[in-house]
Amino acid sequence: MRVNVDLRLKDVPGQLIRALEPVSRNGGNIVGVVHRHDQISAGRIGVNLTFDVPSEKVLEKVQAEWSGAEVDLMRIENIFETYPLEYVIVGDVSAAEMKRITEGIQALGQVESIDVKYSISSSKDKAAHISGKVRDRDIIKKSNKFMRERAKRSGFVIIRGFGD
After folding, report:
1. What's the CA gap between 74 and 60, in Å, rounded?
2. Which domains does the chain have, with CATH numbers?
3. Mean pLDDT of the chain
């Protein structure tokens, strides 16, 4: 799990190392550090830290060590890696079918976003571009299967995205 935190450290030598050591000591991997030495407030310096840890339990251990080392945790958030999901649909696809498609993809779970661009012409053929982001690579496989089944049932052509 990737985590991003804002910390406040005492403005004395060695405090940055004291803030970083609990991450590595507990099996974490530091990805980035921004030490804002020019932003001192009440004798404390802001540090933004991004790191990977294997579990919530490890993250709790890191937080406990920070508390004992007088490192103030101001903000914490998980950063989720996402994977692109993309399809082009060509054929007689109604707006109701587009709704069923997007709802079906969302029902697979772990979907961060879905964007739809829908083109309607005077002819029977329409085109749509569906793009999105999912948190799990397995969802892409499930979505591909879902889209193949919808295309077969409804008679439209799908072109799978370039990033899959």
Report:
1. 15
2. 2-79 (3.30.70.260), 83-160 (3.30.70.120)
3. 90
